[in-house]
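User: Can you recover a sequence for this backbone? Please restate the input before giving your answer.

Assistant: Of course. Working from this structure:
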């Protein structure tokens, strides 16, 4: 994201990031700056590298070259090894909430227990305080009445909202959404999108990988189209979605905006 000159440290700064899986190079020098409080949507076809980029931001994928910064702190630290690096990356991840395509809830824990596990185990919060925090975030995503329910009794949309509440309970600096609605039935997509829209109104910094073009157009401050491991085009949504410069972008949007109407 290109921003006006400012002395404020970006919330996320990705510089010349490369990543290979074997001989396949999936990220070929990606750079992106995300100011605090801004929402960036990353779009592209399957295999374009967008999910790999998002997973690299919190070190679920280890990049081969480049730097990734979170609020002025470098995420990838090739100079660190062993326990020192493990502590570093655990601290980084406490400041990043990530919501996956598949909800990854613990089936043997109640909704509230799923939400409070992180604050208790990673931040050392006592059970009473964690439960108060967990109920607050369940209410925020519209599931205050489901605190004692187990995941098997929830719809897909409810599970994903629990996953969002779980991430928010860590009180992160940035939220990462990796195709958060793609595993949901169409009628459940909107309830998850509404939660994400409420976070946008609260100026939560977000990186969103999504196939929902209309949603990306409405919620984003910046949009980026990836194809073949490179950034083909990026820009403010008003221009990006209505008058893109590149033919590849136009073809992609023509196809996907039609299917999202």
């Amino acid at each position: 994201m290109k921003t006006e000159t400012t002395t404020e440290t970006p919330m996320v700064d990705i510089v010349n990031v490369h990543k290979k899986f074997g001989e396949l190079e999936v990220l070929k020098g990606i750079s992106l700056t995300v100011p605090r409080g801004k929402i960036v949507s990353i779009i592209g076809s399957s295999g374009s590298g967008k999910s790999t980029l998002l997973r690299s931001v919190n070190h679920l994928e280890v990049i081969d070259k480049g730097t990734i910064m979170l609020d002025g702190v470098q995420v990838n630290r090739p100079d660190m090894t062993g326990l020192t690096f493990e502590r570093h990356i655990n601290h980084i991840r406490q400041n990043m909430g990530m919501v996956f395509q598949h909800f990854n809830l613990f089936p043997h824990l109640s909704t509230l227990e799923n939400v409070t596990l992180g604050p208790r185990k990673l931040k050392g919060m006592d059970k009473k305080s964690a439960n108060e925090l967990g109920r607050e975030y369940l209410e925020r995503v519209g599931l205050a009445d489901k605190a004692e329910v187990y995941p098997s009794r929830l719809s897909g949309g409810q599970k994903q909202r629990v996953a969002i509440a779980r991430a928010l309970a860590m009180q992160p600096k940035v939220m990462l959404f990796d195709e958060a609605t793609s595993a949901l039935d169409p009628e459940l997509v909107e309830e998850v999108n509404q939660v994400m829209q409420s976070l946008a109104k609260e100026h939560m910094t977000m990186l969103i990988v999504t196939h929902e073009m209309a949603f990306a157009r409405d919620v984003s401050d910046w949009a980026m189209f990836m194809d073949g491991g490179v950034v083909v085009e990026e820009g403010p949504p008003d221009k990006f979605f209505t008058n893109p410069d590149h033919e590849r972008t136009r073809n992609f949007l023509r196809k996907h905006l039609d299917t999202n109407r």
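That completes the design. The radius of gyration is 18 Å.
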